[in-house]
Amino acid sequence: MTKILIIHSSVDGHTMHICERIRSVREDLDIDIISLSKTKNISLNGYEMIIIGASIRYGKYRKELFKFIDENLITIHSKKNAFFSVNVVARKAEKNSADTNPYINKFLLKTSWRPKIIDVFAGKIEYPKYNLFDRSIIKFIMWMTNGPTDTSKNFEFTDWSKVEKFSKNL
User: Fold this and answer.
1) In the chain, where are the structural domains located?
2) Which of 115, 118, 139 is nearest to 127 (CA)?
3) Which residues of the chain have pLDDT under 70?
4) Which residues of 116-148 are buried (b: 16+ CB within 10 A; e: fewer)?
5) What fold is seen in the domain 3-124+158-168?
6) What is the pTM of this model?
7) Pairing state of beta strands 154-156 and 124-126?
8) What's residue 60's pLDDT?
């Protein structure tokens, strides 16, 4: 059975949920899921494929993401690999593909890794879960981009059929 490692960089947990959906769709594969913050002592050598999923917060990926990729670039390149981004901008039809999503483009400019498979999934806004600062900033960003601003609600934009299609293409 093919052994796959999915590493997620998730701020609020939605990227991790996407990883879990990938694993549930591909029960025919042996998939381990681990947080980027717990990869310090992990060996990538036992895996045939490495998938990295990362979310955006305030327009940026976490710095640890790029550090991990740089430190493991040779190993990642030597295996089947994939990358997916999770961001709310991808809720818009004109920004929901790897070719049109601005965060995918920024990612590719900032790293020398060229994933063999790249995709982007729209994320989730959980206003009631956020502290006052995050709720205010995210509301402002959503107001500027014509997104939802009702801070009493959650808004999920993820197209789960797109996640399942990505999973089947691994």
Assistant:
1) 3-124+158-168
2) 139
3) none
4) eebbbbbbbbbbeebeeebbeebbebbeeeebb
5) Rossmann fold (3.40.50)
6) 0.94
7) antiparallel
8) 93
